[in-house]
């Protein structure tokens, strides 16, 4: 059973867990005090824009129309140009997905598909008051042979040493709860900037139940424990990408270390 401290901060998500483990102070500002982000980083805006463009294209909107519509929402020419560079890879991705679908019998496509589970990992509604963990699947394909492919779009740099399962662990748990007939999960990460889709080793339903579900619940407990002591800071390389960096003394100290000046003695 989840601890009281974990239940207090529910519903959890992959980003909420990672925020708690990375910086409890950021967690308190964002999820407890609910302070509006004073600064939205360009990377975040561009990432959301690419996700939106991919969603529109996968749902049938012509690519030029989809990318142009989303591009117009970006606030500066610099961000629009960065967005344009990432959009170049969309045709290659959709072509690859088309070939992938042609090789398999797809019974259902899932685009920006929201899922949620209760504390006992039974399925509930995304915005339900009893939701304990939830997430939105970027892209999924249910096949007629009781298999499910999950693909997560990543607009940032590929992280060395991180496995596909680590990236998609929470989504697999949610999908396994929602689609109980699925016996095999194919996990892929779409690295947008590299125009590549990286596939991991297929995961069996038994592995999800025996390993991934307990691991996810343990991670939530670790996140709840990390923020239980209050809004302590945890400065690190992520501070430069934090939307709250200008209000955080620890972040300023990390970025602007004082330099002592000593006059030469006569």
Describe the structure.
The chain is built from 10 helices and 7 strands. With 266 residues, it is an alpha+beta fold. The protein has a domain at 9-32 and 108-156 and 163-226. Strands 1, 2, 3, 4, 5, 6 and 7 form a 7-stranded mixed beta sheet that branches. Helix 2 (14-22) crosses helix 3, helix 2 (14-22) packs across helix 9 (205-228) and helix 4 packs antiparallel against helix 5 (63-71). It is globular, with a radius of gyration of 21 Å.
Oligomer: single chain
Number of strands: 7
Give the overall silhouette: globular
User: How far apart are the termini?
Assistant: 71 Å
Count of helical segments?
A: 10
CA radius of gyration is 21 Å
Integer average pLDDT: 90
* SS strand fraction: 15-25%
Largest sheet: 7 strands, mixed
Which structural class should the secondary elements be placed in?
alpha+beta
Helix content: 40-55%
